[in-house]
Amino acid sequence: MVRKILLSFNREISGVHQAALLIGLSSIVAKVLALYRDRLLAGTFGAGEELDIYFAAFRVPDFLYAVSLILSTNAAILPIFMRRESRGHDAVRSFVARISTLFIFVMVLVIGAAYFLMPFVSSLITPGFSAVNLDKLVVLSRILLLSPLLLGFSALISNILQAHNRFFIYALSPVLYNAGIIAGILFFYPSMGLSGLTWGVILGALLHLLVQVPSVVSVGLMPRPTLAVFGKDILEVLRFSTPRSIGIGLNQLVLTVLTAIASAIGAGSIAVFQFSYNLFSIPLGVIGLSYSVAAFPAMTRSFVDGKKDEFIKNVVNSLRHIIFWSLPFVVLFIVLRAHIVRVVLGAGAFGWADTRLTAAALGLFSISILAQGIVMLLVRAFYAAGKTVFPLIVNFISSLVTVAIAVGVLYLFETSHPLRVFERVLLRVEDLGQTSVLVLAFSFSVGSVINAAVLWLGFNSFFKTLDGILARSSWQNTVASAVLGGTTYGVLKITDKFFDLQTFWGIFAHGAIAASAGLFLFLAYLWFSGNQELRDIVSAVSQKFWKSEAIAPEPRSAAEI
């Protein structure tokens, strides 16, 4: 029985849609835990100074995690890993040992330097904090410096699982990560204060790593230290991964700049920005990340094998499904933004003013849900094709645009009366304070849309494939999403008098019924219009991939047979 359970955890899942669904389902579980985590935080603290400190403490560790991806990102390691497989198990094991040793050595040095520089860096990223809050920020940030080491090494060994299509354990890791953070809120914070929250994050990062170890051991590729570190393959990793790591680092720098601006707007602004960003990230993890991660090994294999048509097919099919899933999320998150925020975060110290401001920010973030999903996939497609410089240049330009819009529009927002019409008519938050934080969400979305559009045009320029291929599918999904939005909004207006919108269950039922009516017509339209994406999903689910036979690891010697 135990062996059967272990084998089921270690089974191979080779289909892109099946793997994407598995990762997506696990992402849903992880995101549900993340929602519960944020509800606990919101109910305990509200949108105030303490959460501003807590969320700001992630900025430096998250940037260092981006640095760690130079030696751990799957976009660079998976193609090299797969090429080493053709040389035999020993060649792969040697590569894993060398890259792992170098990773730990570099990260220990970087984290050590960050520990001593933290007071100076913290003052730069939160110029609006008082001296007392800065001291608290330094303490929390130093604890969180352990997270890029643990999560980075976890990302490194996850490449082994992805290369062997062992997606189950890979998908379980983020679930345990959020479970650790929740443990910190419930059990560590009451006795340790704010530092207890950060120790919960470290516990989650440790679980994220440890859950993958048995599966890595089972394929005989558990990293071991070695003195013979450098070689052509390591230099190749650096050549391919450095642009990707810089790109992710740019994203973190953008968030850091936006955090710095939010710290100067007023107490609670960072919390509002982060809560709305976390909610916006839910469909990204469920859709964009799931399909991009699941498709990447297949895209890499087809390109390495010289099968360009198959490579293009994998990219286009994944794009179709990202569009299929993302558009309804965009619509529902905009129409139901207040319901979503109130249901998820509306407890305890998180008041109605916090809800309205966070909902407005969520609506602005949601504009870019589809764009972010496209970026996730196309960046990996470029990396699978060995083209690493172009997405970096695009990311750099979009990052500059994001920051420029944030600074420029914020100035106009504070000085120009016409822009207040936008605040009053569309977002309906003119009576609230600190509405300038909404400019940050808007600038982020504009930068994301520009990033996706240029990557799309660039991919089509390189491979001459995307023009017209997705037109029919995109049109069907756009019309269906318009039906979804109109129906949901109409049902909300018609039924609002039948629900007690002062209670959790009243708000939940009101939004759920409206969304259900909209989704019913959305799916009906797509089904009767012959939408291929919907039929692909039905086919993938009907195969019951979770009941497929587990594939045991290949024996490495006769003794293991």
Automatic annotation (TrEMBL):
Keywords assigned by UniProt, alphabetized: Cell membrane, Cell shape, Cell wall biogenesis/degradation, Membrane, Peptidoglycan synthesis, Transmembrane, Transmembrane helix, Transport
Predominant place of localization: membrane
Pfam families on file: MurJ
GO cellular component: plasma membrane
Keyword presence, Cell wall biogenesis/degradation: yes
Superkingdom of the organism of origin: Bacteria
Family: Belongs to the MurJ/MviN family.
Name used for this protein in its record: Probable lipid II flippase MurJ
Underlying gene: murJ
